[in-house]
Design goal:
This protein is an alpha/beta fold and 191 residues long. The chain has one domain: Rossmann fold, CATH 3.40.50. Helix content is 32%, strand content 15%. A hairpin with a 2-residue loop joins strand 9 and strand 10. The protein starts with a helix and ends in a 23-residue tail after the last helix. InterPro entries: Class_I_gatase-like, DJ-1/PfpI, INH-QAR.
């Protein structure tokens, strides 16, 4: 939800319209693992072409990463998008599409090995809060996702706008992607 705050912030001059897309063919409200209820605007089948296709993470990605029909639909949405961003284990879905094969990417450090297993041809970066490679921006956990969203705003609007959004949120923006204190906490990502 951190990135949604960044993208929806009134000071963000990108004039972003946030639309939620259901991973199923229904528009029934979904309760996240953090007890936030979201009502989708579109299904994955009928969503319009998106400038920024955002793939969230969380425990639900474990089952979704095994759904080949969904992966095919996501692959189409990724291909159509101008930018594509994932947070946390959302990178497992993105990796399964094959869209980031040959690209640099990162994910949540506590689930890094599991996510990386979904994309053996991805150049996984173990020590990074976020990584931008081409149109793809991938990030570690939710706070790193907020950092990555601010980075996207700085690229698409301006650094000054991203800074204003960060200050208005009273959020300390980690502006250097490679400064990742969490990488050394886990054996698989330790340098």
């Amino acid at each position: 939800m951190g990135p949604m705050r960044v993208f929806g912030e009134a000071l963000n001059t990108l004039n972003i319209e946030i639309k939620f897309i259901s991973a199923t063919s229904t528009l029934k409200p979904v309760r996240t693992s953090h007890q936030v209820e979201i009502t989708p605007h579109y299904t994955i089948e009928n969503a319009p072409k998106l400038d920024l296709f955002f793939i969230p993470g969380g425990s639900g990605t474990r089952g979704l990463s095994l759904n080949e029909e969904l992966i095919d639909l996501v692959r189409t949405r990724v291909r159509e998008s101008t930018w594509c961003m994932s947070v946390c284990t959302g990178a497992s879905i993105l990796a399964k599409t094959g869209s980031i094969d040959g690209y640099k990417a990162t994910t949540n450090k506590s689930a890094f090995q599991w996510v990386a297993s979904h994309g053996p041809n991805v150049d996984w970066v173990k020590k990074a809060r976020w990584v931008q490679d081409g149109k793809f921006v991938t990030s570690a956990g939710v706070s790193a996702g907020t950092d990555a969203a601010l980075y996207v705003v700085s690229e698409l609007a301006s650094y000054e706008i991203a800074e204003k959004v960060s200050v208005n949120m009273e959020y300390t923006w980690h502006k250097i992607a490679g400064e990742d204190p969490f990488a050394d906490m886990y054996e698989y990502t330790r340098s």
